[in-house]
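Batch queue: ligand-bound targets. Current item pairs a single chain with zinc ion. No template structures supplied; prediction is de novo from sequence plus SMILES. Inputs echoed for audit trail.
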Amino acid sequence: MKQQIDTKPVKGDALIIVDVQNDFLPGGSLAVPNGDEVVPALNRYVAAFESQRLPIYATRDWHPANHCSFKAQGGIWPPHCIAESNGAQFAPGLKRPADMVVISKATTSEKDAYSGFEGTDLAERLHKQGVHRLFIGGLATDYCVLNTVKDALKHKFTVLLLQDAIRAVNVQPDDGRKAEEEMQRLGAKPIRVEALAA
Ligand SMILES: [Zn+2]
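Prediction returned. Tokens below.
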């Protein structure tokens, strides 16, 4: 018999939406190519989690104007996701249930954080809620999704990677593909939204 993972969200699961913010969408200051395509896909996962009353988290970059990752401070990125700015807001089309928990990261000038776990209480909150499996999608595959998935695995969560709800920056053309391979090698299981209805 072929072994299958059960991909329907159940108690003990949480959805983690990584950095679906205006600056990472087409027209934003650090636009991820086709980044907007993750929104309708994520909305279907949100609907599934919401209908089961399961926890939904959304991480966001929430930087001061003089953040160390910005070129003017010697970093590699253009200014993006400055706290309170329009660019830092979640994509307007993203479904956000009232009880969705927002996790702000890299909120001080001297530290950057690609992972939603870095410098936040995300792991602690998840443990307190009895969560042991995470459905993770968002932006961008090769940076914040990659690092959030890696940290989730380090924290011993089972990780399902939402393969149809991620997009890559691709500074090098293969970065996204390599990041997906790395996440899978480390133990993340790729799924697509059809799996929710299976
Ligand atoms: Zn950033």
